[in-house]
Amino acid sequence: MLVVLLALGAGACSEEKAGTRGAGDAGAQAATAPAADERAQEDLAGIRARGRLRFLLPGRQEPETLPRSGFPPDLERRLAEEFARRLALEPVPVEVDSYQALIPSLLEGRGDVLVASLTVTPERKKLVSFTTPVAVVSEQVVTRQDDDLSGPAGLAGRTIAVRKSSSYWSTARGLAKKYPGLRVKPVPENLDTEQVLYRVARGELDLTLADSNLVQAVSAYTPGLKVAFAVGGPRLLAWAVRPEAQRLRRALDEFLSEVQLAEPASKTYRGDLPAIAKRRVLRVLTRNSAATYFLWRGELMGFEYELVREFARRHDLYVKLVVPPSRDDLIPWLREGRGDLVAAALTITGERRGRGVAFSRPYNYVTETVVCRRDDEKCPAGPAGLAGRTVVVRRSSAYWKTLARLQADGVALTLQAAPEEFETEEIIARVAAGAFDLTVADSHIVDIELTYRDDIKSGCALGGKVAHGWALRADNPLLKKAVDRFFDKEYRGVFYNIIRRKYFHSPRSIRKRTAERAARTGRISPFDELFRKFAGRFGFDWRLIAAQAHVESRFDPRARSWAGARGLMQVTPGTAKEMGFADATRPADNVHAGVKYLARLRGRFAERLPVNVRNWFALAAYNAGYGHVLDARRLARRQGWDPDRWFANVERAMLLLSRPRYARTARYGYCRGSEPFEYVRRIRDRYRAYLRASRP
């Protein structure tokens, strides 16, 4: 199960951390040191006067992520941002290089509140003032899935790896004293517990200790982990402030109690809107896909995601996105009380209503459309054209029922069931590849696919328009009334039309060759001098940067993407700010920011890799996000491919991340892997052409 908790109005998440802004042209730094005049130690009144709330958290080697199973660090960061907004303060995250530096940084005045959950211990209580607990957990010894360790008696000869600064260290030392032969190994302080758990799953580390809530979160997307046994009793985790900041602590206590952070994620509710308003959390069952919500360059996006977020904002609610294992689980989980509504582009059908489900008023109308390969000369122009063809759809989908009716009416088509775990996008990809003959998809999904790819085409529509609605429990009439009111106001309004155009009608790719210009003139573009200048500053071949700029924008400095990226290098506003540019629309600033960001991405990959390999990885990360490249490297290793080579290895794994069964176990979730796959190849091909046609 995948669960995401988002503070209302939080907006999309920047892939880079706010604490790295203005780190210099050498690339990213892991932490931010506030200016001397910001090392203030005021209580709440002084913080209000300053207008900024600085929250300390451990620096991560990985960027903002797709939050999974209530992943504690992601949840806490968003809650800290929401707390600041509640007080009309600017949230300022301040990253610290290591866990052991967190409390000293707080006491020195580098931040106002420490939001990394700390174990409440007598020693720490002498130094800081803890908030109300954010979680009650137990420490667990964690090993690999195939390990037969099931109790402390088997610890002899084993090695347990933890950070020295963590509360796990004293627990591990206590175990070593009690069970001779157990070795305790310190890991680097800049490794967070998630990364340590990942190394255990891969067999790089033997054992580790972790809090039960984090183990549960990480296990949802990291195959191969097993809890061997729990150590000790329950422990309290809390945030911390300086001892003198008692008004700030009281405000935090009130806020944390209100959002019920420590509440178990598995608890079920069936209450109507008043109960939801009391909890302040709207739980939304959905799918992690291109038509619903996904992570793109570190930003959470998607048509359903943006609609749900706006509805929650209007009702002053948090959004908790819950992704069941399969599409078939959406309605059963709704009925069981694991979510409050389903927002997943569901077709309104009588059969679904008969299962105790009510639907909102329609918010989208689509046609069921046949999808063919681009070169299919017999792509059906009408339902009769399906005779003699094989159509592949999920048995649980509304398409199956439509096609079954056509069979009953005498159309001699063959109806083949696709695996239930296949999203419609994956079935379409298999049609494009020739593995399946035909499929059927809602027209809005076809629209999305046609903006990304040119190897398919739409055929005939099967009947008239069908309606999509959000599904709710039939015994929640007040929530249904609120949703209906929202769609009555927003359907085909300004907000609705903007996001609809953004996801369904904006071309994502542009293909046009310009290498001929270089062959004739020795110049690639009007911006060659800018590419030379900034490529040289950051250690790239300028022609590689020119190739990237062409793929991004066709050398159009006014280009703007569907997601708001701008200029020659298609830099998002958030990335521009992280690179130190308030406005990167000028060509020089845009190229500077883009190349600086590419250099930062390259710097995240191990220096032991050849520079050309790191360049390809960095380009893939520029396109899809650093996290998705990490996932692809992990997946490549599991598939037996070389995780240190992009072409024919990691790029193959990247393609798999669009498939639900792989995305479910990926830290960063669904990724349209064909995009970075094609992106890097187009840049490579154009770069080779530029090398042949231009001077160094």
Descriptive report:
The chain is α/β, with parallel strands linked by helices and 696 residues long. The chain has four domains: 7-131 and 243-259, D-Maltodextrin-Binding Protein, domain 2, CATH 3.40.190; 136-237, 3-Layer(aba) Sandwich (D-Maltodextrin-Binding Protein, domain 2), CATH 3.40.190; 365-468, D-Maltodextrin-Binding Protein, domain 2 (3-Layer(aba) Sandwich), CATH 3.40.190; 515-693, Lysozyme (Orthogonal Bundle), CATH 1.10.530. It contains 27 helices and 21 strands. Strands 1, 11, 14, 15, 16, 17, 20 and 21 form an eight-stranded mixed beta sheet that branches. Strands 2, 3, 4, 5, 6, 9 and 10 form a seven-stranded mixed beta sheet that branches. Helix 19 runs parallel beside helix 22 (587-603), helix 23 packs across helix 24 and helix 24 (626-639) packs across helix 25 (646-656).
Mean pLDDT: 84
Domain tally: 4
CATH class assignment of the largest domain: Mainly Alpha
Global Rg: 26 Å
Q: Which band does the percent of strand residues land in?
A: 15-25%
**End-to-end distance:** 52 Å
Helix content: 25-40%
Helix count, DSSP H or I runs of 4 or more residues: 27
- Return the CATH topology of the largest domain: Lysozyme
Question: What is the approximate shape?
Answer: globular
| Major beta-sheet overview | 8 strands, mixed
Q: What is the CATH architecture descriptor of the largest domain? A: Orthogonal Bundle
Q: How many strands in all? A: 21
Give the class from helix and strand content and strand pairing.
alpha/beta
Low-pLDDT ranges = 1-37, 261-265, 508-521
